[in-house]
Design a protein that fits this description.
The chain is α/β, with parallel strands linked by helices. The protein contains 11 helices and 12 strands.
């Protein structure tokens, strides 16, 4: 996935001279995870450059550049570091098109390495998607595979609206063959990764892979589970989501973020409103716990496990 993201950035930098990549250590170092490796050497310091450790400044500069006609792709080094930039993100980045009555596009793609699973210290493994999804004016997307990372990042950079691009750090080293030409589904479309008849697992980012593991384990016991990768939280593809759940009649929504007010609650509400007549059991949620993200030594007790998800599947099957 790291190489796919790097290739997407290279593709967009080459295709449009207005594209700028910047953030903490993204230039000479090539990023903490080497996502921007080699881009400064290829495109120069005026288009790929380092910034001070000032997240609010990074996003504020991106807003100003977008108003001046550029297409900024800033990076916040880790998910938990994005919170100092919330004022700029929620007050300016999300609002400027409305505030200017459409006079200004805001084509900013904010890259945000997100979620846990890497044994990181405090503030390095957050899942803040609900904050951004709740903010009108922001699009929120997250890839689950290397190919999806390439396709979604190119689509995000081309988009005239601000996109929060949440990269699953635990999937950075997942390998697959990747077609390095923009294709695939656009922003706002979910995908049915695996068809099933007994229940539907709904996930995004790193939990898509976990749900595929669950589906494979359940298949050994004769249980057929579908897996829907939302890809885009905002805008949300209700059509694909509702169609899969209407087919199976049962749904389990999985994410790493804490349970209370997590995005699974929004998904559950949409299913209740749009597929109530098809549901054979209440929608179940499998999430992180309502505690601050723990240290790396015990994070596997926090992240939804195969066993926890299978237990939720059993609950909807037994209802």
């Amino acid at each position: 996935m790291v190489q796919a993201l790097n290739a997407a950035l290279r593709y967009c930098l080459a295709a449009d001279d207005r594209t700028l990549v910047f953030g903490q250590d993204v230039g000479r170092l090539g990023g903490v995870f080497r996502v921007t490796d080699g881009l400064q050497r290829e495109f120069g310091e005026r288009r790929v450059f380092d910034t001070p450790l000032a997240e609010s400044g990074i996003v504020g500069v991106a807003v100003g550049l977008a108003m001046a006609g550029w297409r900024p792709v800033p990076e916040i080094q880790f998910d938990g570091f994005s919170f100092p930039a919330l004022d700029q993100m929620l007050t300016n980045l999300a609002k400027y098109r409305g505030r200017s009555r459409g006079a200004y596009d805001m084509p900013v793609t904010l890259r945000l390495p997100s979620y846990g699973g890497i044994g990181g210290p405090e503030h390095h493994s957050e899942s803040p998607e609900s904050i951004y999804a709740h903010t009108a004016g922001l699009k929120v997307v997250t890839p689950s595979s290397a190919q999806e990372a390439f396709n979604l990042l190119v689509a995000a950079i081309r988009d005239p609206d601000p996109v929060i691009f949440m990269e699953p750090k635990s999937r950075y080293w997942a390998k697959e063959e990747v077609a390095l030409e923009p294709a695939g589904l656009p922003i706002g479309c979910a995908r049915l990764v695996r068809a099933g008849s007994d229940a539907t697992l709904v996930a995004w980012g790193p939990m898509v892979h976990r749900c595929l593991q669950v589906a494979a384990a359940a298949e050994e016991d004769g249980v057929s589970l579908g897996v829907v990768d939302l890809r885009s939280l905002v805008p949300l593809d209700e059509e694909t989501l509702l169609a899969s759940v209407a087919e199976t009649g049962r749904a389990v929504v999985v994410h790493e973020a804490p349970r209370t007010a997590g995005f699974a609650a929004e998904v559950s509400a949409r299913l209740m409103e749009g597929a109530f007549g098809s549901l054979k059991a209440p929608v179940q949620r499998v999430t992180g716990w309502d505690v601050p993200y723990p240290s790396g030594a015990v994070e596997q007790q926090y992240i939804p496990s195969v066993d926890r998800i299978l237990l939720a599947v059993q609950l909807v099957l037994d209802h």
